[in-house]
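Cross-check.
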Amino acid sequence: MAKKKSKKAAEGEQKPRSSKPPALDAIFESKFYFLYYAVAIGILTLILFHKFVFSNQMLFGSDMLQAGVFFRNFFVEYVKAHGSVPQWNPYIFGGMPYVDAFHGDILYPISFVFKMIFPLFRALGWALVFHVFLAGITMYLCTRAFKLGKFAATFAGLFYMFAPYFVSLVAPGHDGKMFVTALFPLTIMFLERGMDKKSYLDFVGLGTVIGLIILTPHPQMAYFSLWAIGSYFIFKLITRYIRERSLAVGGVLTGFFLVAIIIGLALSAIQFYPGYKYVKEYSPRAGEGRGGYEWATSWSMHPEELVGMFVPLYAGVDGHSGQTYWGRNPFKDNSEYIGFFPLLLGVLGLIFFHDKRKWFFLGLGIIALIYALGATTPLFYLFYYLVPNVKSMRAPSMIMFLASFSFALLGAMGIQYLVKEFRGDKSVRRKKLLTVLLVVTGVYAAFALFWTVAGETLMDIARYSAMSQNKFAASSANIGTIQGGLWLIALFVAGTFLLIKMFGERKVGIAALALIALFSVAEAWRVDFKFISIEDPTLRFSPHSSVAYLQRNIGNDRLIDMTGRMFGSMDYYAYFNLPQVTGYHGNQIAAYDRLIGGLSFTNLYDRRGAPKLPVLNLLSTKFLVYRAGFQVSDTTLSRVYDTDGVTIYMNRSALPRAFLVHDYRVIADPDSTVAIVGDQRFDPRRFMLLDEEPEFKPKEPLYDKVEDCELIEYEPGYAKIATQVKEDAFICLTDPHYPAWKAFIDGEPTKVYRAYSALMAIGVPKGEHVVEFVYESEIYETSRAVTYGAVIFVALSLVIGFVASRTRRGERHG
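Predicted model, tokenized:
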């Protein structure tokens, strides 16, 4: 006799379960999910940057305001006026190469479009906002290339794009770092797909992204990217060989990878090769330059920043809205914090997800962290002495984008385990996962309680251990932030525990796990918002009344700004096309840098601001700009302007931009030359100091009224001088000497010598002549041709690949 069915069973038969998936599952299964995802993260990005998006202001970025605005304004104005990229910047440090010396994202195509479409101050911000959105897209695509689900890829995208390490770069205005960070996941995506499918087109894609990364241009971040790309290629090559034991396949893949590297270097040649040669031979960083271990480890992470990886903003920050940093760096306007949830879920991924690739990315993240710690650990000596170019780099903490990427991917693996395996996992692992979450909740709740009860005492201990006694006010102001962060993480982890537990018990669906993504966004945004602020650009870049006075009177001469950043930027007057003797850049020509006394300008003025006229005179410094009331005793200086908080002195002893000298001395040692030039008794017009014996040798001078030398035309990269001399002479043009400058006398080329250790000079025979100095960079022209060729090659590769793919598809369906 058949058994009687239970009531529940009978009800189940009467009400068959719907075949339709739950609403959220249906969204994930939709072929339009990527579009939904892009729209969602686009909205989130606009919300994060709402202050900027819904205003007419600019995003505040300290370094962007200091120099970046001037660099890009000069670029935009020049391109619109001339239809080409400027080669020489005549407005700071007496003049310097524009492309070679890296003036920001000159040739990076994405930001170029923004600068050409939007007003400059808005374009700079929109480029950053777009790259935050782009990071979410690239990280999602990369995660999908690892065969992880859409849900896991969504988490990875959110982790990466909203990581405080990334978003905090808005505050200093480090756009190049943000551009590299946003593009980097594409390199791993193309490499992963190319290695698995032996796909040549994926390697072409890899090379294209490498080229874009180098064009950002942030050489140090690009270099770190190549470390990671090369390491992952080796990892994939080895694992594939172990699996297939095929040298032939390895050879093909190695060939494809080399093609990708060549494509990247060729696409970026227009920026990379002139810049590389300049840095190696002509910048202050050439050779040992400003190097050394202390230089290479400056702006490292320190123990308090390491704690900040788990306790957000533990060491505070120096931002637009407040100064709470109490660590060992001079100041700190960004964060290395990558977010708590990528770390938490990344640990779960390491423990529970089965994928050998996770160990590579764990290693990459750990190595990035060790490198970022710099001098904090002795391990940095290994990088310093064994890895090329580390000696010439600084700020090792910027490598943390690799750690952020690694843990975003590992966190996605943790989510993949939860979605695909957790419910059906009957082993002890399921209980272990919940135990881990409970322990983490308890630890953070305990620390939150300790900091709430004894925050002042704990901060005193931390501050004195960090030797930051002089930052007491800043550290005290950060206690509330630490307490709030600890309590928030404890609350979110507790919520995560409950959601995962109920999900495992089938009490809630996958929609509940989506709340963890919201937890991660909220936890990251709490930090992110501290680095996003806006500012009215007219407050810094409206012309002061002194600008109009100088524009009327400066002619072809220069000024030196001694106001102590009164206008917020050391390049303020340069922004209005007024040539400055100094400025803000950090990569000026090394010989000129030596002449002016390095970063502290010790050959131009003393500690009190009193001018040292010998070098100022040589550099055609006609005007000295001070804050109102500054008194100068030198009788050769006349006060000519005293309005709106600014006092301007005119220097009557300044040499003209181009002047004649009939005699010379050869001194090969540049330091000896600088010492002579800085002597009050030295007159540069008595004899010219050259660093080599000239082919041209003038006779004894005959001074009379017939002699003349006048700079009659000057624009970036071009100078025209009219001369009339009785006897052979030298002409000195007081722009810094650089090999790309060519000189012509009446149209005939002539040799350019280095004068006074840093400036340009040529020999001129007696008579009346027209002298022209023209900036013609052979390496730039060659590199540009290489880049154009690479663009054509990539385009052809894509077209051929597309046609071949369509043909194969047609054959399969035929």
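The first strand starts at residue 58 and ends at 59. The chain has 31 helices and 21 strands. Passed to J.P. for a second look.
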